[in-house]
Each structure stands twice: as structure tokens, then as C-alpha cells.
Amino acid sequence: MKPLRPHQQAALDLLRRSIGTGDVRLDGETWSQYRGSRYWVSDQARVYSTIRAGRLLKQTLTPQGYPYVSLMIGDVPVKTTVHRMVAELFVPGAGMTVNHKDGDKTNNLPRNLEWCSFSENNAHAHDHGLVRNFGSDHYAAKLNEATVKAVREMVASGFLHREAAVAFGITRKHVTKIVSGGAWRRA
Predict the structure, then answer these.
(1) Helix, strand, coil % over all residues of the chain, rounded to 5
(2) Which residues on adjacent β-strands are paired with residue 148?
(3) What does the pLDDT look like over 25-42, one tens digit per residue?
């Protein structure tokens, strides 16, 4: 293993001496121990491991776009989102979930995070246009807005629902839902 540079060794020694003594200020960052483990989290959303030589942990994105790190808690590997770790240590208050005020999932600074309920988090996402799970953006959408408009126009001009269904390759029931507003209400 490569020897540590002097500044790395000094930082590691400071963190190891500080275990159990609260927050540590180092180069303009505040570091706090995460749940009494061997991991430290900074107010700049960086995660440091004191295991062996010590290092900053690589952050990877979840499929939803949130940065996470892999920790070893006891003998169990645990994947933990960075925004949750930062909020637990640096954001006052309590709640069921953590909201990103600016909607940027990778901005995990404490000033951008707040505790809230699930319904408040969902309302924030809808209010700021962060969620578009309807229309052609829906994961299961087989049609687009233009096709839906054409289906409605065809039925309005006198064609039967089954004729429109055959023309667009969808079921008659789907045509009925589109025309009645049960599906594609926003199109």
C-alpha cells in the first residue's frame, strides 16, 4: 500500500483522535461522525472512511439520480444516500424524508436540504415540475399527445370506438378511456 502524504496522515490522525468528541473543523469543512461508525461526513457532502489508511468514499448515483456510498456497518454492506447522511448530521429538525429545496438531487449541501413529510416532498416535486409521470413521459406510455388528439378527432367525426382502435393499434376499451377522459386527461 502506498504511504500517505503528510497532509493526508495529519487529517487521518486528527479524525482518529476526535472519535467520540463531536464535530471536527478541517480546511474549512466541518466533519461529523456518522452514527458512531468509522465513517465521517462533511458539511460539503463528502464521506470519509477511517478504515485502514482512510480515504474519501466514491459516490455513485442510484437509478433515480441520488448519490450514495457503500458502507460496512459491522459485517453488513449498506448503501446509504449521501443527502440522508448530511441531513441527519447537519440539518436541524426531524421528518420522514429529506427534500432538496432546489430540486437538484446531486446538491447535498445542508443549506439545500430540509426535513419534511412524504406528502410535502411529493407536493414540492409536483409544484416545481420535477415529476412528470403522465402523458408520453409516463414509463408505460404507448401513445403520444398527437396520437391521442387524433383518436379523439376520429371518434368526434363519427367513427366507432372499435374502428379507431383498429386504426391506431390499441384496444376499444383504451379508445373509450381516452374519449371519456379516463386516460390521457391532460392531452
Answers:
(1) 35, 20, 45
(2) none
(3) 778 889 998 988 889 999
Contact 33, 20 (CB under 8 A): yes
- Give the pTM: 0.66
Cα gap 182→100, rounded to integer Å: 33
Mean pLDDT of 90-106: 93
Write down all domains in the chain, each with its CATH number in brackets.
Answer: 6-127 (3.90.75.20), 135-180 (no CATH)
Helical pair 145-156 and 172-180, crossing angle rounded to 10 deg: 90
CA distance 6 to 13: 10
The rounded distance, in Å, linking the Cα atoms of 107 and 133 is 23
For residue 19, give the nearest of 48, 43, 46 by alpha carbon: 48
What residues pair up with 95 in beta bridges, in sequence order?
A: none
Residue 144 φ then ψ, to 5°: -120, 175
- Name residue 36's amino acid: G
Q: Encode pLDDT of 100-154 as tens digits.
A: 999 999 999 999 999 999 999 999 988 888 877 777 777 778 888 899 999 999 9
- State the sign of the Cα–Cα–Cα–Cα dihedral 4, 50, 13, 83: positive
DSSP classification of residue 134: S
pLDDT band for position 17 (cuts 50, 70, 90): low
